[in-house]
Amino acid sequence: MCTVNDVDVLTSVAGAVLGPGSHAVVDLLDVVPGVQVDAVRAADDLLPRLAHEESLANILMLARASLRPGGVLVAAVPELDRLGALRPTAPPPKVNGDRVTVQLWDWAPDGLSYGLEVVTLLRGAAGWEISATASTRHRVLSAAEMEEALGAAGFVSVQRLAPGESGYRVPVWVAVA
């Protein structure tokens, strides 16, 4: 799930690459064909979900076409390829005051994809209550697959930033149009 801070970090990375000035930045799912922008950003659940839906190549080409020359795609992509063999069932819950968000992972037998269930609990007067749920399926994307997909979509100067380099909790891919 993407938070405002997640988006701010991705926008900051785009701004650092593009340099000083005002930049038109849009979320990947808000790209409008024919409208060019300086940066397109994608938070960490999006590309693995689109890969599972067999839409990754098309959406990356759409993103590339929407960028002005020298524009950037900034995409956060968790690298879970090493976890497939371990098949963890959940990361630690996120606690924010009276709100707790829990993720549950249901791995495919081959470890190449997983179902993601996100459950949000709120503390009410009578105790904890489920306030929201969401379910998706994701394909695990390795660093090599990401580099190949970005290159195939026409991006150049593809770079993977580690969390310590970007300030984001998962690796961030920066690709220039």
Give a quick rundown of the structure:
It comes from Lentzea atacamensis. The chain has 177 residues and is an alpha+beta fold. Helix content is 27%, strand content 38%.
Care to describe what's here?
The chain is 27% helix and 38% strand. It is α+β, with helices and mostly antiparallel strands. It has two domains: 112 residues, Vaccinia Virus protein VP39 (Rossmann fold); 45 residues, no CATH class. A hairpin with a 5-residue loop joins strand 5 and strand 6. 29% of the residues are buried.
Order of helices and strands: HEEHHEEEEEHEHE
In the predicted model, the low-confidence regions spanning at least 5 consecutive residues are 1-6
Strand order of the largest sheet: 1-2-3-9-8
Give the CATH class of the largest domain.
Answer: Alpha Beta
From the N-terminal CA to the C-terminal CA, the straight-line distance is: 27 Å
List the helices and strands and how they pair.
Layout: H1 4-18, E1 25-27, E2 37-42, H2 46-52, H3 56-66, E3 67-76, E4 94-96, E5 99-107, E6 113-124, E7 127-139, H4 143-152, E8 156-161, H5 163-166, E9 172-176
Parallel strand pairs: 1-2, 2-3
Antiparallel strand pairs: 3-9, 4-5, 5-6, 6-7, 8-9
Protein name: Methyltransferase domain-containing protein
InterPro entries: SAM-dependent_MTases_sf
Organism: Lentzea atacamensis
